[in-house]
Description:
41% of the residues lie in helices and 17% in strands. By secondary structure, the chain is of the alpha/beta class. The longest helix is centred in the last third of the chain and has 32 residues, at 332-363. The chain is globular and about 65 Å long.
Amino acid sequence: xxxALITWVTWQDWSYLAELLLEKWYExxxxxxxxxxxxTDRIDHLLQDRHEKDRKFILHxxxxxxxxxxxxxxxxxxPDEIYNLAAQSHVHISFLMPEYTWNNDxxxxxxxxxxxxxxxxxKTCKFYQASTSELFGWMDYNRPEAWxxxxxxxxxxxxxxxxxxxxxxxxxxxxxxYWMFCSNWILFNHESPRRWENFVTRKITMAVAxxxxxxxxxxxxxxxxxxxxxxxxxxxxxxxxLMLQQDKPDDFVIATWVSNTVRDFVNRSxxxxxxxxxxxxxxxxxxxxxxxxWKCLVEVDPQYFRPAEVNYLLWDATKAKTVLWWQPxxxxxxxxxxxxxxxxxxxxKDEILxxxxxxxxxxxxx
Length: 366
Ligand code: GDD
């Protein structure tokens, strides 16, 4: 049985990856930082059987800032595969916390590689580094039709992108210097009902659900023109795993070839909740109205603009398609539908629960 180590597992992608690896009969070891809440909502369904004798989903308390702790773990576990997903992955927050982002996203990658070498596992342990389309960042406006692939020039536009470029290069360097199996995976935005609310898609679908249920008045966004290749995180963890099943390490761009604006995603999400919108004004005055009630439901709030932005990139994932035989299964429409549906159900459940408690409590009132 293969052993995999996932650095952090309580987030969206990592929870899907853990599910996939368990389906494939891996023994999955995962790290959890010590925080004052357990925050395992996304993997609680995997933890249900944790008292069973032959458990395959093993929690370790671990923190990337604690070298002794992780060295001991890597020595004890002797993983066949390490998926390095630990990162401060929010682009906007990286402008607010550049040093923290640097430590998380670059230094930790270097540390893991060294820990693997110190445990004499460099010839047996495959290492996966989560990289990002943010490395390419800057669009070449002289060639707006250009498709980006693994060999395109890089020009990150945020502290997050800069830290990730170092992480990618240190993994490449360890591959060349020590013949380690290190693969980088350069991907676009990956979403799902488990996405954290401060990424734009989930912010939108949660707001749509709340607005539909009269729990929120309006949705405030900023750059509605930004284009992204959004796809389902489930598709993307499959590609992650495939990369480490290859004979040779390599870097891959993972994308679906389809881009949509934030504005498209907003419209599609409201349509999924049977609300039709009409636009008035453009630029920072842009507003969207419900065509039945003429209430303004979406507005631009410029205070959140990023100091530098990635507006648009076109991706060529031919290599992933031909080498890994990877193909996304979900379309952006299906993704959006699943997210809105799930958020509507969650908020409805909350409301029913609140109503239930309200009825119980009011029974005791005079
Ligand atoms: N978060 C957010 N919130 N973004 C908004 C909003 C808003 O209210 N309004 C507009 N946007 C725009 C952002 O300016 C950006 O252009 C786009 O929507 C997507 O923003 P995010 O969802 O925050 O994702 P991201 O593209 O910056 O980064 C994500 O994808 C990268 C891969 O391309 C993250 O998952 C990164 O970790 C990942 O590397």
